[in-house]
Design brief:
The first copy, chain A, is an alpha/beta fold. Chain A is built from ten helices and 17 strands. Chain A has a nine-stranded mixed sheet.
């Protein structure tokens, strides 16, 4: 079986999640390639070495350029801050590596497009870490929709709300600046719910958005009295229209008190409704309007071995799956796609499609008008 | 104690709810006036007589004009289809009656304004049946917000979704025509959530709306193959901005499969969040962000005798309150306001304010632009 | 239509609920007799007069013996403390009155039996206020079970838990003494869940109970340092076996922190499960095991006009019903039963059956053994 | 760092869960020993080899006796059917291996005692796979209780209900026979909830149980008309008393329609209540009775990085943890305990304590009386 050597750049919160996925995936799934945890890159050699050992990787480096240039690396996995994604990906592509990048793919749709084009030209495979669509519960929703069990979709309401910046005294960080993060809650969080909307409904064609920076400045550091300006939005809402004619709303916030993983959606069809929140990631609520009038009601389906991918993790419904499990599905798709040279999804193209919707929402707000997604390139 | 004679026009679903409220309110609350169930008007004398007897009213008539002209009637209660509200109210006002009208107050904001002005000129009292704000749970929410327990409000998301027209073969009826209903889901349902938004947050200043008629035509009657055009929207969404700076979204639908009383809202503040659905009308969810980080979480408060108005109904929390109980609070406010000649709320002015927001949403959709509510008169 | 004159004894929390039911029932339901709110009895004439006026009754008295002897009264409604039920009911029966008593019927099964026998001999009708079984949601559960939708019942778990005595400094009151209350949580609360078990499953044949007084003494009054002994149980649990072969557990507590109306039950059958809590009295959860394995899950049914009795209150599901509404169903059954001289349910016989199960649980605990309900008379 | 070589016997559903835990644990946690996935034993060499490869183990064997005798193996992990636990464990202990066994430890408490004694004599470490107590949410509950946040515990209600045998036509299997499974639902499922009760409350002192075999015989195979007798209980209930004076109930069922992972408990204290269901394994409900009367209510705490062990898995609350993650905590405790030669918990002693409570419940049922746990040895 072909070996696939992974080079991981960045070992913060999300890099760690990737590492756990690399550790467990070969035991969970029968992979089509042999996953090798090869090299870790961090900001200095010491940290890189420490993390390589903790994460079960063979080698380490304090210079990511060394990693992307290493002839033994097949896949470059980018878990660095957003503003570095583009440079790292382009460099990796230049060396002919497959690239697996965290979301958002880039700070702007234009940057994302450049990355898509480079990958296509180089003939390398790509993947973006929109892991929530790899949740077996999301796959079950997709199956129910595809079966026509809720009829034609007429409405989508989705959010990605969290409260990590809810406290006005939470210090400023790179997520709050245009040159390091690009958009605010839209880029950091809404990317996921836009991806879900496109996955479960259809492509979004037009948007009309509203953005707001509620906390205008934040302490430079915890306890500091020096305040620094916040440059991007804390919350945003957008009316959306889909290619299939459905309408709806997407909202996002990083100051939504009480939402710890508020990726939620309600999809209404002509014959039923599905509803979901990632905070209860193993539950899907299904309503069928064609049930007898006196036996109608939302049903809570616990994801289990009868549903997509779940049986690889657990023997029974209700045992529960976690965040890292959906990352394992993602890594499985990555490895199998590369090993068999078949398309991986979601790829950079999907990352770009998400980015241009986010850009369209921001443009719509700036110009106070409806914007066609096709206006953005 | 002063007698207050009620004349009830219309005895359908909502007229019946008013009748139950008239029956129980004097026992539930110590009223400041003596409520007399005096006269019922219906489309013919037989039906009127039957309903008067069933509802415990003394007299009946097949002609509403007789009721509004009757010198013994003090309050005219309008529970007829929407398109009759204006004519009946103006005629009642002309006879110097106080008027209690179901929502929406009129088919357009302009009509509503005419009613407000007539009532002011005549010096009569008015009330609109936005009963959901009379729910003790809503009053509790208002109290929590006023206390500053969730800080400054930064976001509102509200819906009034139902599924009574979800089946495409549900026959056409007066709610679907412009000349009998005016707007569709917006007028029939969203009036309530707009009223709640204004009650709990502040006045709405600008809107940007999207409307859609999903089921373009419906059978003339059940089983009929003759299809009749639907003239107003099945669903609508709107971005909103409030005077206090908060932003948010309002949505409404009459085809939202599974929603039986989908009046829901989430109000996010700088220090906490409140969340509510009328389908669980006795529960309020409260999140406090200033709780210790390891003891944060939404708390479900069951409305009880420690909260506004509830103790008049039941001795203990968890006993539960129903739709008709909130109508009893409404009738108490009506009777007490008239008996003591003090302002009643929500009055026709509030009904007009709601109507113009609905009109602004519809205009915004027609012209594909943000609309200031003040553009509508 | 025959007039049925009500004489109400006791106007505390539950007497008030009866009064509200008398007020609204004739408007809610088309009754078969004309309900007359005739006389109120209280501990002194002033209070009686005040309450008669507040509750819309014609007459009042400071002496309940006057009420039960009054020739114009047809129904004596007993809402006094438990220890007075027996004396008042026997006296009312002696005067040939129909009797409507709150639960528990008496302090012991033996007393209850005496009341049953007296009523039978006198040929009067009786009713016990087990109002939770009048909730349309409970009627829906009964219908689902009777239809065989969940198969044969194999297990019942039920509670009636509240927290009104949870604070150890809550002062002593009559519920805590043997001579005024008889049993503690069992008599005050568990009576309801035992009644529900018998209603929804079948008669209980044997029990094995455990009782505990957690707070052994309480302040004589709020703030007092004088402590008075608590004479009956704060909490109790019992294994039960039903005549139909099913097994299960009943639990009760008056110190169950957080339970405001913790009347809950789960009924498991060979083909499905029903689950309910009175704190969400308009919701029934139904699980069907014969659904396809990948579409199984508990369904939340909102009680609505398609279900028993509900349509008389509201036009749509989700509008919600409250505690007083189930009392209205109870009063309807009372009035119709008397007006047409047909059996009323639950009658004193059912009250006695509940009492002897409670006595059997207490005996079982005292003797540390399983007890057949038939051992109690 | 010391190497700890694992020998895994059995690769069915639960052996697979162990394998996944072995794969991810070294990346999740900084372990104190080097975990080596060394050898897999299965019923034949081919299957063993296949699974060793799939699970990332170095070696394999078709004879478990070879594994337990192998000098390089330090820990024997027993994931075989229940009736083999004792023989395998004793043999492993005889070879001086540490033993990690799935629950129930043995078919009877007497067998379990023999295993405890053997391990003590041999001086080897032991662990039983009561993984649900390793859930960070359970650890949070323990912390809240230990802090006294809910006061003194007065009541425990716990279940472990599933529905894997609910269908009467589900074929017979080894769980249904005395000589292969011992007890039925009690042994297979209730072991977990008994362990939780002891962990969160205190040791159980006396029990009174009721057992029932609802489905008396089952098809020999799917579709077969030959019926085979079921030899142990489908469901059981028991009254329990704890050493600390608290009372309560434990129930279990393998035919509880709709329960997929119905490990649930409610713990009531003098100052508050905790409630949990494993089907929502990342949520803990907490009620504080000392909150102001108008702000009381159950709070839903989403387990997160502020709580025990969670931060090793995910960076934020609400991301979610799964069944395999609690197995990873278990494996961490195993490896660290062995590496540092410090006590591991839960050990065989705890497994024996659970077994004798289960035996006491069965004895209580057989003899229809309360049984002291100390009667069982």
């Amino acid at each position: 079986m072909k070996e696939i050597h992974i080079g991981l750049i960045g070992t913060g919160y999300i890099g760690r999640a990737h590492a756990i996925a690399y550790a467990q995936t070969p035991t969970v799934f029968p992979l089509k390639g042999k996953l090798i945890r090869d090299m870790v890159a961090e900001v200095n050699p010491q940290l890189a070495a420490e993390r390589a050992q903790a994460f079960g990787f063979n080698r380490s480096t304090g210079d990511w350029r060394e990693l992307v240039a290493d002839p033994n690396i097949h896949v470059v996995d980018i878990c660095s801050p957003n503003y570095l994604h583009k440079e790292m990906a382009l460099e990796a592509i230049r060396h002919g590596k497959h690239v697996y990048s965290e979301k958002p793919l880039a700070l702007t749709a234009a940057d994302a497009r450049e990355m898509v084009d480079a990958a296509k030209q180089a003939g390398v495979q790509t993947m973006v870490g929109f892991n929530y669509m790899k949740n077996p519960t999301a796959s079950l929703a997709k199956e129910i929709i595809s079966n026509g069990e809720i009829g034609e979709i007429v409405h989508f309401y989705g959010t990605h709300n969290e409260d990590y910046m809810a406290d006005p005294l939470e210090p400023i960080h790179w997520h709050c600046f245009k040159n390091t993060a690009g958009l605010g809650a839209l880029g950091d969080l809404a990317a996921h719910i836009v991806n879900m909307a496109q996955y479960l409904v259809s492509d979004i064609s037009t948007v009309c958005g509203d953005l707001q920076t509620v906390v205008k400045s934040r302490p430079e550091q915890a306890g500091s009295s020096k305040m620094v300006e916040v440059e991007n939005e804390d919350q945003a809402s957008a009316l959306i229209r889909f290619n299939n004619g459905a309408m709806g709303v997407i909202e996002t916030s990083r100051i939504a008190c009480g939402r710890k993983m508020g990726l939620t959606w309600v999809i209404t069809g002509t014959k039923g409704t599905l509803s979901f929140t990632q905070e209860r990631m193993a539950e899907l609520k299904l309503y069928r309007h064609d049930a007898p009038a006196n036996r109608q009601g939302f049903q809570t389906i616990l994801v289990g071995p009868e549903h997509p991918d779940y049986a690889w993790f657990c023997g029974g419904a209700g045992h529960g799956i976690g965040f890292n499990d959906q990352k394992a599905v993602e890594v499985r798709d990555l490895i199998n796609g590369i090993a068999t040279n078949t398309p991986i999804w979601p790829d950079f193209e999907e990352g770009w499609k998400v980015s241009r919707i986010l850009d369209a929402i921001a443009l719509s707000h700036a110009e106070e008008r409806w914007v066609k997604v096709s206006e953005i390139r």
